[in-house]
């Protein structure tokens, strides 16, 4: 993917399909692409959570072939991992809430630390939540950041 797709990214959900091994095998490529093309203003990686989707189809899935997700996600720089089902809404709210919590924490850390020297990674400017709040988003209406004066 090009840097344009990552512009203004403050967090990422990397999702693979538990019923298709090829999607799991692509996880490290996607995470590497994310980390190589965007970083927070303090130089740290954009917070990313790993989602193993289609857990509702476990009997058809890759469970024996997929390594322990917790250790895998920690080893490769994901903040956390969740088995999810978009079909029956399993763990979607929990996963997104986890990511939002880390995004807000990272934002606070960025505000208090000086930016690193520029390199080959796109460094994002300070994110202004007030601009995002004015535009709004129907899908995110329940997730408002704390009021900033």
Tell me what you see in this structure.
- One of its GO terms (molecular function) is GTPase activity.
- Keywords: GTP-binding, Nucleotide-binding.
- One of its GO terms (cellular component) is late endosome.
- Belongs to the small GTPase superfamily. Rab family.
- InterPro entries: P-loop_NTPase (IPR027417), Small_GTPase (IPR001806).
- The protein has helices at 3-6, 21-25, 27-37, 69-75, 92-112, 129-135; strands spanning 12-17, 48-53, 80-83.
- The protein has a three-stranded parallel sheet with strand order 1-2-3, with helices on both faces.
- Helix content is 37%, strand content 11%.
- It has six helices and three strands.
- The protein is an alpha/beta fold and 149 residues long.
- It has a single domain (3-140), classed as Rossmann fold.
Features:
149 residues, alpha/beta, Rossmann fold, 6 helices, 37% helix, globular
Q: Topology, pairings included?
A:
Layout: H1 3-6, E1 12-17, H2 21-25, H3 27-37, E2 48-53, H4 69-75, E3 80-83, H5 92-112, H6 129-135
Parallel strand pairs: 1-2, 2-3
If you average the pLDDT, what whole number results? 78
For the record, what is the CATH homologous superfamily label? P-loop containing nucleotide triphosphate hydrolases
Please state the CA-atom Rg, rounded to the nearest Å.
Answer: 16 Å
Please indicate the percent range of residues in DSSP E strands (runs of 2 or more). 5-15%
| Cα end-to-end separation | 36 Å
Number of domains: 1
Number of distinct helices: 6
Order of helices and strands: HEHHEHEHH
Structural class: alpha/beta
CATH class: Alpha Beta
Largest sheet: 3 strands, parallel
Oligomer designation: single chain
Strand order of the largest sheet: 1-2-3
What is the name of the CATH topology?
Answer: Rossmann fold
Low-pLDDT runs of 5+ residues are: 132-145
Could you say what the CATH architecture is?
A: 3-Layer(aba) Sandwich
Helix content, binned percent: 25-40%
Tertiary shape: globular
DSSP strand count:
3
């Amino acid at each position: 993917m090009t840097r344009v797709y990552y512009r203004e990214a403050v967090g990422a959900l990397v999702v693979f399909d538990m019923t298709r091994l090829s999607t799991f095998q692509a996880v490290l490529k996607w995470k590497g692409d994310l980390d190589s093309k965007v970083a927070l203003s303090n130089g740290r990686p954009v917070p990313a959570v790993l989602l193993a989707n289609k857990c509702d189809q476990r009997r058809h899935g890759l469970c024996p072939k997929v390594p322990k997700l917790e250790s895998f996600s920690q080893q490769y720089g994901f903040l956390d991992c969740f088995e999810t089902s978009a079909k029956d809404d399993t763990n979607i709210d929990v996963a997104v809430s986890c990511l939002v919590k880390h995004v807000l924490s990272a934002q606070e850390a960025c505000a208090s630390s000086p930016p690193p020297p520029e390199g080959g990674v796109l460094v994002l400017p300070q994110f202004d939540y007030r601009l995002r709040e004015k535009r709004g988003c129907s899908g995110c209406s329940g997730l408002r950041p704390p009021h900033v004066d």
